[in-house]
Amino acid sequence: MSAISDAHPEHIGTVRNALAHYHSGVQAAAKYLMDRRGSAGPLPVPLALPEADEAFTRFTDVTDLVLTRLDEELYLLDLMRSPGTRTTKAFASLTMVARAVDHIRRTGERVVFLTPTSGNKGSALRDAVARAYATGFASPDELRVVMVAPAASTSKLRGGPLSDDSALRGANPLALADVDTPAGVKDLAKEVVDAYADEALAGTGFRCWYTLDLDNYRVADSVRAFAEAELLPLTADAPPRWHAHAVSSAYGLLGYHLGHQVLADGLYPKLAAPARHPGFFLVQQLATPDMVVSALGRDVPRYSQDPAAGVWRQSGDPAFPAVTDDPAEVLDPTFYTKNPVTSAAIDPLIGKHGGGGVVVSRRECLDRFDRVRDLAARAGVDIDADPSRIREWSLIKMLTGILVGRERGLIAPGTEVVAHASGYYTDETLPPLPVEHTEPVRTAPELAKVLSAAVSA
After folding, report:
1. In this structure, are residues 256 and 278 in contact, taking their beta carbons and an 8 Å threshold?
2. What does 381-419 look like in DSSP terms, one character per residue?
């Protein structure tokens, strides 16, 4: 069953294979970042992509972008068209694998990714590695990936070629970590890289690549600004425009901002520079609302329990749910980051260019579920009628946040909104990973053993 179709009259335009189509723009974005990294430290491999030859184009041929007009002031930028991920994380994962393959060819070193994740980033990287194998871009002897996810994200884990084949499963294991908080997988993986990476390289020839450097994602997500410049140019006489995104750390919006800077500085002359920078509208959940809290400069309001109705309520702040089942509700475990350092970059952009944010609850999503399904259908995205079957809520959260923002005056009438559709899947559209295909870990030495077995397989 496919969640996406193409025959919809409101499509404004489609960019086929965005990573190949905007290759020189992504290269300009990589150079822009490398020139400004300063004290950020070295990367395992350069940010630049290999040349856009036939092999690269074949490998990245799942990175289509589609822009659709949903209503008079609302546009959907569909970033979910990679069939193996159904999320925007495909873009960064494919660029990382392409860079790794280029490094392998230039140096003779092999590469193993170690990626901590709450689900989608790791699943997308595993899919990109599997795609490299399937297209002949790289072999299992050259390139591998070790993923570590918190046990709380079990429902987010997706299957695929790396788990279906026993040999590939051994070389590309998925560790399920028993950690105090979901974000603990980041510290666990970083500890293993710091302690074991040099030994792994010396003993096996595998360079260990810890993936969570922000620039890995910003480079790939620059294509969002390029797509807007080509399909929906922001001209001087255009109405106010905001970009809306369901965010954990807002990597995607920072990638858009990078692409905007490249265009504004004339570093990608293929496309005209936008007349101005749009505002950003952040959508989050109650368990991890820190980016909205930071952007708005105020705390989550105090909720009062309504025992008779079995809910919690507040009426003091329209940017937060009026009703919720839990003031610390986890609507989607993928959104697991608390107090992200990226707020320091996003807040000034919202302060300068406009925007804001909203926090939504599951009840708010369900109350507007039919309206959200109707909006998504106009872009060819079929949201399952049964919410219990949905495993990735990014698209639903984001569209709900826009509806709530309009209802409560958080988004003023006359404001164009470009909604970033960053993820949606069910177990039917993207099959889950069998739990028996994971390896339980609790400590850094246990994860190091998983890594060691992977590079020795």
Report:
1. no
2. B---S-GGGEEE-HHHHHHHHHHHHHHTTSS-TT-EEEE
The distance of Cα 388 from the centroid of its chain, to the nearest Å, equals: 22
Other C-beta atoms lying within 10 Å of the C-beta of residue 452? 17
Q: Within 10 A of 275 (CB to CB), how many other CB atoms are there?
A: 12
- The one-letter amino acid code at 130 reads A
Q: Residue 224 and residue 83: Cα distance in Å, rounded?
A: 19
Q: Give me 412's structure tokens.
A: 């003023």
**324, containing H or E segment:** strand 323-324
In angstroms, the CA 337 to CA 182 distance is 8
Interaxial angle between packed helices 184-204 and 444-456, expressed in degrees from 0 to 180 and rounded to the nearest 10: 40
Q: What share of the chain is helix, strand, coil (3-state, %, to 5)?
A: 45, 20, 40
**What are the φ/ψ torsions at residue 410 (nearest 5 degrees)?**
-75, -25
Q: What does the angle CA 96 – CA 101 – CA 105 come to, to the nearest 5 degrees?
A: 150
pTM: 0.95
* CB proximity list for 172: less than 8 A, separation 6 or greater: 126, 129, 140, 144, 145, 146, 147, 162, 454
Residues in the chain: 457
- At residue 16, the 3 state secondary structure works out as coil
Per-block mean pLDDT, blocks of 10 residues, the chain (457 long): 48 95 98 86 89 97 97 97 97 98 96 94 97 97 97 92 94 95 91 89 92 94 98 96 97 98 98 97 97 97 96 97 97 86 97 98 98 96 97 97 98 98 97 94 95 92
For tokens 């707020």, name the residue. Answer: 343
229: three-class secondary structure by DSSP: helix
